[in-house]
Design a protein that fits this description.
The chain is an alpha/beta fold and 288 residues long. It has ten helices and six strands; from the N terminus they run αβαβββααβαβααααα. This is Werner syndrome-like exonuclease.
Amino acid sequence: MELNYVSVASEWEEDETFTEQELEIVEALEAEYEFSLTNRTQSSTPLHTPENRPKTRRQLPASFSLSPCQANSRIKYPAMRFGGQILYSRTSVEVEKAAMELLQVLETQKRETGQVVIGFDIEWKPTFKRGVSAGKVAVMQICGDINHCYVMHIIHSGIPPSLQFLLEDSAILKVGVGIGNDAVKIDNDYNVSVKDVEDLSYLANQKLGGDSQRYSLASLTEMLICKELEKPNKIRLGNWEAEFLSKDKLQYAATDAFTSWHLYQVLKSFPYPGRDAAERTSQEVEGV
């Protein structure tokens, strides 16, 4: 399916290159920032986020088995990629219109299925200097099915009323990895409270059993659906506050949101450890 844009970038951004020292600084600053947000989240708003744990290389829990995915770092999986329409909006009028359209779609889903779930993620411009605050949330991406993803360039539009209503609607479940931290940042930057969020890392620990781990979106993608979620630094660490987003950035943003939505569907289909065994035992006792 061809990509469809509400607005099309008039200029392509030049490729951005980073030295190893710059990358190390950014990753250290990101870790410090995430740690501060996690602590603030745990001490204030009871969001569904996992405990803050040291980052380690992710491996399949011993109790988990899902063919054909294997815990083999030598396997090169195909790239995860959103293949539907990307709806890009950047002015307040465009973002308001996109949010209203999305709310209508979600209301239809709610009537048909009784549940509304969206994959949710944000991007902001990184900083390469200690003591300099991270940029405001620049991009918000939302995906609720396999066909459409909305990429909203809110650094230019702000958060208009319909988008605020969507974020604050507790009937709409927002899913993603580290989404509790994202909610705190949005509240800090725009004074908008994102309600009803679920962290996929926390859900994965509940569903997969074994030792609790702090999964990344990329590790869950590899583990659950045998796909590689590519994170090229020139995009991930690029200027998300640019006047327009390039097609590569739009694809990156939409794929992250879609992946969160898709992995939630996968994890939701898994039983909780021990539940099936308990149900079978109960049924056997009743049949005696």
